[in-house]
Amino acid sequence: MIASDRLDATFIALADPTRRAIIARLASGDASVTELAEPFAMSQPAISKHIKVLERAGLVSRGRDAQRRPCRLEAKPLEAANEWLERYAQFWEANFQRLDALLNEMKTAKKKPARPKR
Amino acid sequence: MIASDRLDATFIALADPTRRAIIARLASGDASVTELAEPFAMSQPAISKHIKVLERAGLVSRGRDAQRRPCRLEAKPLEAANEWLERYAQFWEANFQRLDALLNEMKTAKKKPARPKR
DNA sequence: TCGTTATATAACCAACGGGCTATGGAATGA
DNA sequence: TCATTCCATAGCCCGTTGGTTATATAACGA
User: Fold this and answer.
1) CA angle at residue A50 from A82 to A45, to 5 degrees?
2) Of all nucleotides in the shown strands, which has a C1' nearest the CA of B46?
3) What number does CATH give the domain A4-111?
4) Low pLDDT (below 50) residues in chain B
5) What is the CATH number of domain B4-86?
C-alpha cells in the first residue's frame, strides 16, 4: 500500500480540531499565520506546526506578502478522502434501508393481533 | 465545538492504512479477529488494538459467536466525516473554476502575462 | 542603520501510537 | 477434566505529536 500515504497524510491532518478549524477559516479566504493563530489559546509556533502538517498533506500552500506568508486552502486532497468515504456511502445507506425494513415490518405487523415488541 | 471529539475519533481511525483495510474488509461482511488479522504481517494483539480504535470511533460493533467476537462495520460515523468534507466540495470546485479563469486569462492576454495575486 | 513585525527553528518535555512478547481467561470439544 | 482455540490485557520499546519557551531570520518602515 504505497499510494495510501497521501490518504494517510490527509486523514492525519483532519484528525485534529485545531487543524480542521484552520481549514474552515481558510475556506473563507487566505490568511497569515498570526491571523490564523489569533482565535486560538495557543502559541504561534504551535500554529506553525499545524500549518506544516497541513502543508505536508497538500492542504495548504504558502504565498509571500512582505513579511507575511499567507496560507491558501488547497482542497484537492480532500477530494481523494471524500472518494474513499463515498465508497462506503452505499454501506451506510444499506444500514438505513435495514432500519427502514425493520420499521415497515413493525408497522405492518400492527394489524395483526400480536403487538410489535418495544 | 465540543462535539468534534466524535469527528476526531473518526478521522484518527481513518488515518491508518491497516484500519482502512479492516474497514474495507468488513464492508464485505462481518469477520472475526483472526480472520481480520490473517492478511496482515502483524501480531494478533496489534489487530486487536486497531479494532479498539475503530470501536472507539463507533465504526465497528462486536458480537458473540462461541469463542469468536465477530466485528461488524457501523458506517454511520463515516457520514459525519463525509458531511464535513462535503462542506468543502464547493471549495475545490471553486479551485477548478479559478484555474479555468486563470487559463482563460493567460490565453486571452498573451501579451501581458499578468501574475496571479496571492 | 535600527527597531519592529512576522514567521521559522531549536531544544525540550509529556503523552500517545503502533508494534512486539508473554500471559491470562473464556468458550469449545474430546 | 484437560487441551485447544480465540481473543484480550499487560508490560515494554521507541518514534511521533502537540505543546512550550527562547532564539534566529527575514522583510519592512523610519
Assistant:
1) 170
2) C19
3) 1.10.10.10
4) 1, 110-118
5) 1.10.10.10
